């Protein structure tokens, strides 16, 4: 219908198509509630005020809020297919996502992006897909694909493509590397997302010359304040591993509030079910002292304005009729979700009329290329148990885990005696150390990078995962070389997954056949399995609530300070390879 045909409904001369009555409407522009009717027609909001409707819905003193927007996330981190993720988050109020597919793109390149785009567009939400800027994340690691500006340009005009994904290789940006700047130039007319952990001073100034608009990597109030003062938007991240809400909320005030929004980045399936999605971030922000109306504003209109989307995020004329029915501002329980003016979810469940397996028709996409690149992505070269033995040394560099952070510290371990081989297990345990290995899963020529990890807590066996941000090579931690080797071989057999091996026996495993990242199972099944595997890992001494997700970030060479790739240890601050052995 033409908007000109809605004028009489908007003016109240003619009954509106649908009117929601007896509710308080959230005015995000003024952070207040307005007692009024909400008129909707043809999927958009045509007015707030006093209206009569062809269909009238009595909300009995409920609250109408704009639906939520996740400004930056990786669907792959849910470890389930897109339809399962959508089925979980839409009833929780998220009707718009901005997804960066660099996880599956690192595994399968353009094929992976197209796979996720088709699956995302099939869901009853607003799906915006970013073009991953760093595949691989840096030149110091090997992934399943390498995407140039020319490769990405072929997708620019695809429906659903929204912007350039987080520009993680900030050293290349500030040093004028031609390859990354070709991608930045290619994205001149679209939103450019940032990724600049701890970047400050002149280096931050240089980074911003690229036209990068937002960042979700700020972890301290001082960092966020500097970035805002230099014109950046801050996406306050509250994920499963990295939780920055408590540290950053004190910076938000009435003057700068418009510079902040919320993002989840990486949310674990168990956390999605137990805690929620953006609705969880809103509730938690309120618990930390933010007013409920400001929290809703940051989850809706702020996100839309930061992203440059002009018809989302508010209950106002000419905005999409994407809104939530909430019981009260104290608990923020979402009773119903409307998408384009239509009831889409109610009481935490996607309606059956909507949930008719609204996933991409994968059967039409299952070409030999899809099968090979996405469902047959683990191709190990020849590896042996001895590849997981530490070299003989007196002093070793150590990757040190920090609580609730994906940033790590660097430290040193000095063995207590001159051993003929690697230090004994009992000594490693005494120093709170485990062996860490990253195994290339894409090349016939086997490469295994070795390191030491502190504060993981494992005292027996080995765990392994094919989720290894961002190249997604296989990562394993353990005390037994044999168990580490067997865990890696089990992942090869499953074509991706999570594994726990103890004393030469596979104790637990979860198959992740979709790019080695996602399961072909319901979210609840995956979540329950992960709980079981977490409990098993904890029984072996692991002291992390998300042991596999924690492990997955140990190969990410764009997050300080010390990380491990299949090539060996990498110092992110110096942005160069370093030796495991100090002497």
From TrEMBL:
SUPFAM superfamilies: Composite domain of metallo-dependent hydrolases, Metallo-dependent hydrolases. Keywords: Hydrolase, Manganese. Residues 63-343 form the Amidohydrolase-related domain. One of its GO terms (biological process) is adenine catabolic process. One of its GO terms (molecular function) is adenine deaminase activity. This is Adenine deaminase. The gene is ade. The lineage of its organism: Bacteria, Bacillati, Bacillota, Clostridia, Halanaerobiales. Residues 430-576 form the Adenine deaminase C-terminal domain. It comes from Halanaerobium polyolivorans. Its cofactor is Mn(2+). InterPro entries: Adenine_deam, Adenine_deam_C, Amidohydro-rel, Metal-dep_hydrolase_composite, Metal_Hydrolase. Its EC number is 3.5.4.2. Belongs to the metallo-dependent hydrolases superfamily. Adenine deaminase family. Gene3D superfamilies: Metal-dependent hydrolases, Urease, subunit C, domain 1. It catalyses: adenine + H2O + H(+) = hypoxanthine + NH4(+).
